[in-house]
Every structure is written in C-alpha cells, then in structure tokens.
Known about the structure:
CATH class of the largest domain: Alpha Beta
Bound molecules: ligand LLP
Oligomer: single chain
Shape: globular
Number of helices: 12
Radius of gyration: 22 Å
Amino acid sequence: MDVFTYKNGELFVEGVAVRGLAEAYGTPLYIYSKTHLQTQFRRLAAAMQRVKPLICFAIKANSNGAVIRTLLDEGAGLDIVSGGELFRALRAGADPARIVFAGVGKTADEIRYALRTGILCFTVESEPEARRISACAVEMGTTARIAFRINPDVEAHTHKYISTGKKENKFGIDAGRTLEAYALAAALPNIEIAGLHMHIGSQILTAQPFHDAAAKIRELCLRLKALYPTFRYWDIGGGIGIRYKPEDQALDPVAYAERVVPLLEGLGLQIVMEPGRYLCGNAGVLVTRVQYVKDNPSKKFIIIDAAMSDLIRPALYQAYHEIRAVAQTAATVHADLVGPICESGDFLAADRDLPAVGEGDLLAVMSAGAYGFAMASTYNSRPLVAEVMVEGDRAWVVGRREGWEDLVRREVGL
Ligand code: LLP
C-alpha cells in the first residue's frame, strides 16, 4: 500500500495533507507514516515465517524514539552500534535480551554498559575486541555472549561506501580465519560463543548476493555448532534495498525469502536479521519550501529551505531521491535542487527534471525515512528540524524543532 498519495491534487501522508502539516509545524519537516513502518515489518515477518527470525531493527537508520517504539510494538528486537544507541533503545522500552551490538570500535565503557544491561549478543569485529570484551566481563563478574562478524567476501553491487562484505572492508573477520578466531575467543575467560554474524552491505536490490553469502557461511555455522554447544544464533544482517526511483524494482521480501530461507532451515539455529532501511526508508519524507528560483544563464537552481545538513545522502553517495510537488503538477523544469549551505555539494537533486515550482511552493523529498534525520547535523548553524508521525488522520510531533538557543546550549565559557 502506498501511504503517499495525491487526493484532489494535494499530497497526503495516509489521511493527512502534507500542506497542513507544513503550515502547522513549519519546514523543513520530516514526516513518518506509522502504518508504513508496521506494514513493512509485517511483510518481512510473514515472508520469513518459516524460520521465525528475530528481526532486530537497525536503529542507525532512524533512531527517533517513536519510530523505535512502533517497531518494538510489532515484535522487533534492535541492532545497535554505540552506547548512545543502547541508551535510546532502552529509553524506547526495548528488552535488552533482544538487542545485538555491532561496530568495529566499541569502547570499554560501551562494553560495560551493554554487559550491565544484559544484551543478547555482541557482534565482535576483531580478535582484540574479543579480548577487551572478555576483560570487561571478568572485571564485572559476568559472561559475555558473542558472535563474530564473518566476511563472506561477496560483491553486493551497491555504492562502495555502503558495501561492507568484501574482504578489503574494515568490518568483520575473513571467512578463512573463522575457526581460528572462534578458538581464540573460546579460550578467553567469561566468553560464551553464542553465534555468527554477517552483513554484506546496504541497499541491495537482488536476492542473489544474500543467497551467495548465506551459501558460503552455512557450512561454517554447522561446523561451529558441532564445536561449541552454546552456538545457537545466525545473524544474517540487513541490507534489503528499497525503491528510490519510480522505476526501481524494490527487493520483494518474498523473493528474498525464497532464495535465502532454504539455506537457513534445518540447522537448529535461531535466525536473527538486522534490517534498517527496508523498515523505515519509504516511511518518511522530508518536506521543504522553495525560497527562490535562480536562473543562471547556464543553469537553473531551485533553492529550498532544506539542505545537506538535513539529508546528506545525495551529497555523500550521489543518492537519488524522488522529488514530488505537494500541489500536484505535470509541468517540469530542468534544474538543480539546492539548499542554503555554503558548499557546492549542498544539493538534494542535481541536473534533474523537477516539478515546475515557484517561490513559496512545497516539495516532498521522498524515501527519506532511513539515514535522513539520523545523519543530520547543525552545519552552518542550522537547528535540527522537526519530526512528525502520522497514523490514519492523526499527526503528532515526535521530534521538536530546535531553536537557536539549542545551537549553543552545550558551549561553556563565553
Ligand atoms: N547491520 C549492520 C551491521 C550494518 O552495518 C547496517 C548498516 C545494517 C545492519 C542495516 O543496513 P540496512 O538494512 O539499513 O541496509 N548511510 C548509508 C547506509 C549505511 C549503512 C550502514 N550499515 C545510506 O544512507 O545509504
């Protein structure tokens, strides 16, 4: 179901007009559809139901508490990558026993925090990290459950900044060194070998790389299970891609499951998944108002009040986001859609046929629910924008707009 539709020529999120929200809460404004978040979770859970996975939402994609809470209510666990994310997860009411903790650079403080709360499992990305986790567990008189992140070395066919499963990436451990790494960890005090983790990259639009990775790792899981009686989880990571361009073919969870589930079955292992973008990417839009239309002799610029500080994906990955006019129009204009920040990289669309809009008109930057607000900054001293949740014909603020005072609140000594 598409939750972003035009009714009488006006863009709606579920039953609420975008224009009304922009007027009530100002722009730039992130709007999330609660129904879409729920639908995505249910679609994935249904497609994977033969293995009944624990679906751990990767909250790096969207760490707003209301988004987290919505998915927790659906039965999600969480995938975190920092002490800050653990704090947010607990604040949103997550059960620590359903939290997995990845990341190559966990500090001792973060490890102790996670041990104190009793998370399900650490995704360990190196042998030195295993030693540090062991030392922290000994010091605290507790046991740490771990899963090494193993690199299947498959090509994910995605942007190089978000491809992570190749052996030249900083993540995880080469598949060839798996048994050695586990043997080392098993010999460490206060460590329980709980499982194996893999994650090959993000925004992957075909099932093949997931299949190839699972096929490579399956045998390893069987061997590890035979070696270590406590070995019981296989975390297959995230990475399921979504539609950004209207002509994109999104990866259907049913097609994904058809290729992957047969490799996960019959092992006697609990399957864990870590989707981020799939759950929240198409649940969000960034609404922005046109400030000026600037006609340079060689190029036209539509200057808006949103910037790379609000949505950095186009600047960082040359990512494509569909741009829709809030008041539907068939007329287009070839232009760059740029923000007010003093950087040439500050664009949300470059060299594109865009809706023909003028000063004061509203635009919606689509598919902005994942890695949108979560990657926002206050660069150029632009306060963080507001976030609103919609469900049916109701809308409410889930993140208040910051003001200028917020920009300097943490500064001292003036
Ligand atoms: N698990 C691990 C270990 C990860 O590193 C990631 C994402 C995920 C799960 C979730 O991946 P997803 O299902 O969302 O693809 N900022 C980039 C994406 C970076 C992804 C980082 N890791 C972007 O805006 O495209």
